[in-house]
Amino acid sequence: MNPFFENRLHLTRREFFGRGAMGIGTAALASLLSKEGASSLSAGTIASGSGVRGLPELPHFAQKAKRVIYLFQNGAPTHVDLFDFKSRLQTLHGKPIPEGYIGGRRFSTMTGKADGKVILAPVEPFRQHGQSGAWVSSFLPHIASIADELCFVKSMHTDAVNHAPGISLILSGAQIPGRPTLGAWLAYGLGCDTEDLPSFVVMTSVSKGTTCGQIFYDFYWGPGFLPSRFQGVKFRGSTDPVLYLNNPAGLTRPMRREMLDDIAALNDLKLGEFGDPEIAARIAQYEMAFRMQASVPELTDVSQEKQDVLSLYGPSVREPGTYAYNCLMARRLIERGVRCVQVMHAGWDQHNSITTELYTQCRDTDQPSAGLILDLKQRGLLDDTLVIWGGEFGRTPFIQGNLDDRKRWGRDHHPYAFTVWMAGGGIKKGFSYGETDDLAMNVVKNPVHIHDLQATILKQLGINHERLTYKFQGRNFRLTDVHGEVVSEILA
What we know:
Layout: H1 3-9, H2 13-35, H3 43-47, E1 67-74, H4 79-82, H5 87-91, E2 126-129, E3 134-137, H6 141-145, E4 150-157, H7 163-172, H8 182-190, E5 200-206, E6 233-235, H9 253-274, H10 277-299, H11 307-313, H12 323-335, E7 340-346, H13 357-378, E8 385-390, E9 394-395, E10 413-414, E11 418-423, E12 431-433, E13 435-436, E14 443-445, E15 448-449, H14 450-460, E16 470-472, E17 475-477
Parallel strand pairs: 1-7, 1-8, 4-12, 4-15, 5-6, 5-7
Antiparallel strand pairs: 2-3, 4-11, 8-11, 9-10, 13-14, 16-17
Helix pairs in contact: 9-10, 11-13, 12-13
């Protein structure tokens, strides 16, 4: 027998299941390809740039925002000490929290039952700012100075009481990892305005010397069950931000191009044989990496930035890996057509450092956050860029620790009320929405659930949150699960 024909009779286990799945899954694959708006997944089609297009039916209606910058504060900033001023906390400082405020409430295991916990007043004083009269703590003087550009949502609440589930819920719509995150949904639905950079970029940072850093899990920017080309691309805090992007010594750019063409041809053969969307994703990612070899060095070269712009972000803006540097990179990324930038900063989990590390955390994030808003505004980018600042939940109005040991004061996780702020992208300026009770413990007016926030973000990007779906394991999934109402009152 001809050895070439004989070889085809000896299928590997992977080949057997791969080819067997083709007969069963052809109809499903055709439906998937149609949803992705791709008539073909050949190497030539992807290399030509069709991978940056979104679904043909999107946007569903006029977009107020074309892109998103999410300034995510890992660890849960304390709304009680930063944005949600309540004079009664001063009055009841050191006294047990009244039973009516905590009945039936679930807290983390570090608190357990909240009975008998004593109230802790805000560490620093609050003042009203701007024509809007927004209450902001002296912890955040730069954010306070732009209060009239911001919309404070003070009635956020969530279902999660611990960090990873809470972050997963607010970014993907589910506490259990495995669902697509916001940036992945946007990349899938809306595509990207550039072929030279990913549609979804993530950067992380942590304050130096902090003892309350959070782990940055990859599923915080994962694609879930969407094709993997929609996942967030992490830019590291170094002079070499993307691993394995540079060519090895002796390999020229023309040589790399020839190599990629040959690899793409081989992958295209397998794509035609198996129809696996992940092979298409592999082809697309090779092409993106090749283009990024030219685009990333220009992106990260801040030498041409004017000093007055750099000064907006604060003294650490030139240091790769800092929050200030990442905020500047976020502006440069969206200028170049990136759809979603997720800037994640850890260190807000102050269980016993509210009087020490909270100062460091605010110093590192306050000026860069405000500077980003001002920079976007003066460039005319704020109107169609939605900026979101916030964490996964809030922190308790009562103390965690001993009131007599001020250096060890802290606050525990608090899912029942917290604050986020938003700017640009068709959101009302100088506006505060929602209200908590007189101890900032529970929402008493205009509650906003995580899914409501997600629905509102998608609305501003021209997406009906109930219609952006992906069929997986027999059901249509969406970012907002089966919930979510647009908070129309905060829309300009």
